[in-house]
Write a structure and sequence with these properties.
This protein is mostly helical and 183 residues long. Helix content is 76%, strand content 0%.
Length: 183
C-alpha cells in the first residue's frame, strides 16, 4: 500500500528496513534490490529529506549496482543509476549508461527520449558543482527556516534561484514555496 499513495518518510524508512531484512534472506532477488534502490532514490528526492540526500542517493546507487551485477542490462537500473550520476555531476558515467540503454531499445519513442537525455548531459558539460550540493543546500535552508533564521535561509535559496543550472535541472514548486516563506 505504501507504493500506492504519498506517505511520510518515516513509513518509507520502515518499508526500506523490512526490505533490507528480506534482502539478507534473498541476496540475489533483483525485485528486492529494485525496491530498495527505487525506495532510497524516492526518499532522496523527497523535499523534507534533502538534508540527507547524499546518503540516500548512495544507498540507491549501491542497490542499483547490485542489480547490474546480477543482470548487466537491466533497463530500469541503468536509467536510475544514470540519473543518480547526473545528480553527483558524473555526466560521462551517465552518458555511458544512457548509451547502453539506447543500444537495447528498438522502440523509437523511447530511443528519442534517451537521446534527448544524452544531449542534455552533453550540453551541460562539466558543471562547477554537482546538483546534490544544491539539494543539500535546500535541506540546510529548511533547517534555518525551522530555526527562524529567515535571512540566512533566504540567502541560500536566492543563490540557488540565480543558478540557471540548478533551476533548469531541478524544477520544484516546493523550492519556490520555501523561498517565498523565507522572504
Amino acid at each position: 500500500m505504501l507504493d500506492k499513495k504519498e506517505v511520510e518518510p518515516a513509513y518509507v524508512f520502515r518499508k526500506l528496513t523490512y526490505l533490507k531484512i528480506l534482502h539478507l534472506l534473498e541476496p540475489d532477488n533483483t525485485g528486492l534490490l529494485w525496491q530498495l534502490s527505487q525506495g532510497f532514490y524516492g526518499l532522496a528526492m523527497t523535499f523534507t529529506e534533502l538534508h540527507q540526500v547524499r546518503r540516500h542517493l548512495l544507498n540507491a546507487m549501491r542497490y542499483g549496482q547490485d542489480i547490474l551485477k546480477l543482470q548487466a542490462d537491466d533497463h530500469a537500473a541503468l536509467n536510475l543509476l544514470a540519473e543518480i550520476d547526473i545528480l553527483f555531476g558524473d555526466y560521462p558515467a551517465a552518458i555511458s549508461k544512457f548509451d547502453r540503454l539506447l543500444k537495447s531499445f528498438p522502440d523509437q519513442k523511447t530511443a528519442d527520449n534517451i537521446g534527448d537525455r544524452i544531449e542534455s548531459c552533453v550540453h551541460v558539460g562539466f558543471p562547477d558543482h554537482p546538483l546534490v550540493d544544491d539539494l543539500e543546500c535546500i535541506g540546510e535552508a529548511m533547517h534555518l527556516y525551522a530555526a527562524k533564521d529567515y535571512r540566512r535561509a533566504t540567502e541560500l535559496l536566492e543563490r540557488l534561484e540565480e543558478d540557471n543550472y540548478f533551476i533548469t535541472e531541478f524544477k520544484s514548486a516546493d523550492f519556490f514555496c520555501l523561498l517565498g516563506m523565507c522572504r
